[in-house]
């Protein structure tokens, strides 16, 4: 009988770390949910960042933040390049992990108690997530049926027809999600003229992108310009869901051009697919709802505990889990679990 093969640490990411990352997003969601509706977006963000940073300390990994709260000089915690994870005992090698976080996607949504705020994390082996600059990104996102059908340089009408064709529908039946921003006025007009239906969202093109890749979520595609870091996180989720995405950085100032070059991006006009943005062989994507949403429930407190709703997905092992968890704040045995 041959000896059992030991996988190298970097190919054990999905197997060993999924449960830990679920805890990380849940702790951040619980902390930020306590600030819901208080009208202070910064305080909501800070609560999520601190809880996430704290929860990372218990994870047995040699993690590095590749997408986070900003550059080192502008963010004290979860800055780009920050090492995270528990210190390894002598002689033990923890897996090296690249981590992209959006500790509170939709800070304004949380601060105003509006749907769809969530905590998001993606992880991969080193090199598995693009180090995207904090700039805008043009994006078109759709579900697995639209494989290779999207063209970011084509007219809006063309892409809508292609999506309708892939989904075996008519353009007038499509629902397109667009961030409600003045920069999208022309895009909105073009979608309307083509005859498709639109859902305008105040924030959160990340959760919209995930919804577009999930059947039955009542959205067929996301069009428009949103954050590039959110774009990489969306791509990590789409790899797990086999969704489609085409995207391009919006590099429109000389300063940004210089920054993008410094980050090692050779062609700032490059068209990226989900695989280009999140090329990892091992990918974990975890998101926990903060406020109630279309994809995930928000955090519900009940005095001696709370209940969270988390989406946890892996790429290589092809698993999509929705986790409904009761967290008890009391010591064990003091009170029972109430499932409501
Ligand atoms: C989007 C959206 C985010 O930022 O990426 C957006 O998904 C882009 O920035 O929820 P603007 O607000 O400047 O349009 C958020 O709204 C916030 O991170």
Word description of this protein:
The chain is of the alpha+beta class and 340 residues long. It folds into two domains: 9-129 and 283-328, Fructose-1,6-Bisphosphatase, subunit A, domain 1 (Fructose-1,6-Bisphosphatase, Chain A, domain 1); 136-277, D-Maltodextrin-Binding Protein, domain 2 (3-Layer(aba) Sandwich). 29% of the residues lie in helices and 25% in strands. The protein contains nine helices and 14 strands. The chain has helices spanning 13-33, 41-56, 107-111, 156-166, 185-194, 205-213, 228-241, 254-262, 274-277, and strands at residues 62-67, 83-84, 96-105, 118-124, 136-142, 175-179, 197-201, 221-227, 244-249, 272-273, 283-289, 300-301, 305-314, 319-328. Strands 1, 2, 3, 4, 11, 12, 13 and 14 form an eight-stranded mixed sheet that branches. Helix 1 (13-33) packs antiparallel against helix 2 and helix 6 packs parallel to helix 7 (228-241). The longest helix has 21 residues, at 13-33. The termini are far apart. The model has no long low-confidence stretch (mean pLDDT 94). Residues 105-106, 179, 181, 203-206, 226-227, 230 line the site of 7-O-phosphono-alpha-L-galacto-hept-2-ulopyranose (VTB).
């Amino acid at each position: 009988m041959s000896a059992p093969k030991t996988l190298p640490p970097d190919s054990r990411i999905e197997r060993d770390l999924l449960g830990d990352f679920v805890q990380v997003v849940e702790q951040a969601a619980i902390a930020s949910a306590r600030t819901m509706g208080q009208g202070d977006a910064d305080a909501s963000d800070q609560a999520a960042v601190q809880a996430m940073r704290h929860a990372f300390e218990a994870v047995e990994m040699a993690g590095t933040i590749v997408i986070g709260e900003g550059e080192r000089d502008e963010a004290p915690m979860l800055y780009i390049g920050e090492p995270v994870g528990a210190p390894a005992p002598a002689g033990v090698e923890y897996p090296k992990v690249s981590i992209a976080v959006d500790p509170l996607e939709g800070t304004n949504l949380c601060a105003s108690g509006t749907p769809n705020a969530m905590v998001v994390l993606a992880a991969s082996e080193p090199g598995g997530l693009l180090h995207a600059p904090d700039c805008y990104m043009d994006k078109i996102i759709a579900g697995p049926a639209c494989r290779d059908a999207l063209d970011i340089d084509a007219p809006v009408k063309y892409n809508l027809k292609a999506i309708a064709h892939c989904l075996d529908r008519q353009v007038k039946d499509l629902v397109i999600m667009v961030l409600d921003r003045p920069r999208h006025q022309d895009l909105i007009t073009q979608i309307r003229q083509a005859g498709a239906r639109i859902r305008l969202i105040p924030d959160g093109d990340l959760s919209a992108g995930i919804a577009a890749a999930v059947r039955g979520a009542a959205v067929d595609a996301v069009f428009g310009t949103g954050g590039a870091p959110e774009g990489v996180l969306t791509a990590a989720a789409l790899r797990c869901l086999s969704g489609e995405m085409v995207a391009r950085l919006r590099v429109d100032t000389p300063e940004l051009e210089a920054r993008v070059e410094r980050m090692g991006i050779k062609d700032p006009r490059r068209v990226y697919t989900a695989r280009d943005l999140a090329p990892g062989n091992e990918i974990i994507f975890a998101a926990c709802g903060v406020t109630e949403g279309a994809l995930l429930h928000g955090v519900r407190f009940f005095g001696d505990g709370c209940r969270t709703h988390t989406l946890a997905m892996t790429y290589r092992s092809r698993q999509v889990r929705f986790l409904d968890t009761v967290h008890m704040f009391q010591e064990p045995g003091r009170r029972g679990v109430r499932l409501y």
